[in-house]
Specification:
single chain; 164 residues; binds protoporphyrin IX containing FE
């Protein structure tokens, strides 16, 4: 018997052997699919935090919207009276990008210095964090990346808030 084609070769196998080969093929396909899925999920976690936040431009969009909201919200707007918002926006975006391990240069003050004159309350701080959280959600940032950024910002509370 000559086995000139793959089909002829396949037909020459017994039923049992064909079953085994079919099972092996299914097993290989499933493991390959799982490996691809695993690779995709770890790739995202391996991105630097600033990349998971949308890169410098994505971060600037999030911080700009946050500042637009807190500076016009009657519960937190008073501190922003007379502040040059365009300059503050650039500074906050660079600060957050740097906190998130991004390639940005932050040349502003320490958090304690920057807020020393503003008498910021715990409630005002919490409003800003809530708005930032909402804007991170709106931008489609993952839960893990959002929580990591907020975890890194949490220690600034003790430098920024002067009354509770
Ligand atoms: C996670 C919380 C906060 C972060 C990370 C943050 C970050 C910053 C940064 C990076 C600057 C610029 C400093 C500079 O360029 O020298 C700044 C300034 C400022 N922040 Fe915040 N801030 C936070 C909370 C708040 C809150 C809650 C308020 C008020 C409700 C506030 C009001 C201001 C004001 C008014 C300035 C300008 C100060 C000035 O130019 O005299 N910040 N902040």
């Amino acid at each position: 018997m000559t086995l000139s084609s793959p089909l002829a070769l396949w037909s020459s196998f017994g039923l049992e052997r064909r079953r085994h080969l079919q099972l092996a093929a299914i097993g290989l396909t499933v493991s390959w699919a799982l490996a691809v899925l695993l690779a995709c999920s770890t790739t995202n976690a391996q991105l630097a935090l600033y990349q998971q936040l949308g890169g410098p431009a994505g971060i600037a969009a999030i911080t700009d919207r946050t500042l637009d909201r807190v500076s016009t919200d009657p519960r937190s707007s008073r501190s922003f009276d007379g502040i040059k918002m365009a300059t503050l926006k650039k500074s906050l975006a660079a600060y957050i990008c740097k906190v998130a391990d991004g390639p940005c240069v932050y040349e502003g003050e320490t958090m304690a210095h920057a807020h020393a004159q503003s008498n910021i309350s715990g409630a005002e701080f919490d409003i800003m964090v809530t708005v930032l959280r909402e804007e991170l959600d709106r931008a489609g940032v993952s839960e893990a990346a959002k929580n990591e950024l907020l975890r890194r910002l949490a220690p600034t509370r003790r430098d920024i808030v002067v009354k509770s």
